[in-house]
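Please, does this match?
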Amino acid sequence: MSGMLRVGVGRATITPPIGVDLMGYSRRSQPSTGIHMDLYVTALVASAHGTTVALLDCDLIYLHPPLVDEIRDRIATLLGTERSHILLGCTHSHSAPTSSPVKIGGEQDRVRPEEDAYIRFLPHLFLSAVRQAITAMQPARITAGVGQLAFSVNRREKLPDGRVVLGLNDSGPVDHHVGVVRIDSHEGRPLAALVNYTCHPIFLGSASRLISPDYPGPLRRTVERVTGATCLFLQGATGNVNPRSPMHPDTTEAERAGTMLGLEAAKVFLDLDTRATVERDDWIISVATFHLLRKEVVDSGKPDCVSAGEVALSLPLLPLPDAADARRLLIEREAALEALIRQGATPDDLNPARYQVQWAQMLLRTCAEGLGPANVTVPVQVVRINEVAVVGVAGELFVEAQMAIKHASPFPSTLVAAYANGCVGYIPIAEAYPDGGYEVEHSYKGYRLPAAIAPGAAETVTATAISLLQAAFGKDAPG
C-alpha cells in the first residue's frame, strides 16, 4: 500500500470582512459592500512511494511572494516534503482582497488594519485546508480528459492607427481547451476534479463592489453538484486573454459563464474512467440477438508515480530611465492629477491618476538611489501525478507560451497554472513588444516594477517548463 497513489482534499473559507478594498481595477476607489460568493482555498495532497506533493487553488488575484515563501515552507514542513513540491495557484479574481502591500484599487497608498489582519491570518487557513486533505487521504486512481468552450478571446486588438487596446482580437491565439482531471477513490467514488481554463476572471467590472471569485466560483459549484467531487480550478496563461463580454456591474455574466464551464467540465469528468479497461464482446440470445461491447477491468501494469521539480528563473528588466527623465515623468503625472482635481473629477476618475503618481514617485526614488532591481525571480514548476503534469508559472504569461508548453509536453495531459507561487507581473511573448499596448507598456507599474520584463522572458519560461516536463516524464516509480 505504501507505493499506491493516495489522495486527499480539503478546503477552508478565505472570505474577508466586508469593507476591505478589492484588487484589480484602479478605477474602483470604494471598498467592498457585500458578498456574491465565498472565497476558498482548496488543497489536494497526493503521495506515492514516499513522495508527497500538494496542489492548492485560492480565490485571490495573486499571492505576494514573501507570503508564498511562508506558506510553502509551512506546508512543506507539515507534509515532510520540499517547497518545490507545493504549488499555490490563484484563480486571479479581480473582486478579491489584497495579499500584498501593493494595492490596485481602493486606498492604494495604505493597507487597512483589517486587511493587514486578513493577510496575516491567510497562512493558517491554507494550513487548515492541507490538514483536512491529509486526514482524508486514501488510495486513489487518476485520469484526465479535455473539453472545449469558447467564451474567451485574445484581447490585444490593434486599431487602424496602430494602437493596441484591450478589446477583441478574433484572429489572435486563444486556448479554448477545458482540461479536466478526475480522481476517484480506489472503490470508484469521485474524490476530486481539477479544471484548467484560460480566461481573465473579469466578468465583474470595476462598478461591482461585491467580494467574489468571479466565474471560477460558479464553475466549482456546478462541478461539485453534478459530480460529487471536490473541485479545484487552475487558471491558465491569461496574460492576453479576456472574456468576450467582460466587466459587468453585476454577477449575471460571471454566473452564466461559470455555470457553462462547470457543465462542460462535468461532462468530461463523467465520461472519464479511472480504471484500466479493455472492451470484450458479449452476446445475448433472446427473440433477437444482441452483440454488445462490455468494459472489463484489467491491471494497467503502470506503477503510480508522484514527483515535482522547480527552477527559479532570473528574468531581466528593460533599462531604467535616468533620474532626470524620471523626475520629468513625475512632474507630468502630478500635473495630470492636479488638473483632474481642479475639474472636480470623481474618486473613480482620480484613483488611476493617483496610481500613476505613486508609481512615478517610486521610479524616481529607484533611479535617484541607483538601487533598482535589474531582474525578477520567476519560479517555474512541474508537479506530476501519474500521467498528469501541472506546470506552475509565477506570472501573467501570454497564452502562446502555454500552447507551446502543452504541445511539446510528453505527458498525455498537461495543465498550465499561471499565477502559481506568486506573480511578478506580465510575461509577454517577444513579438508583442513592438506593438506595445497595456501588457508591454503599463502593466508592470501595477506590480511596482520600475520597468517591464525584457523581451525573451516568455520564451525562456517556455523552454524551462518543457525541460522540467521531460525530466519529470523520465522518472519512473520505484520498483
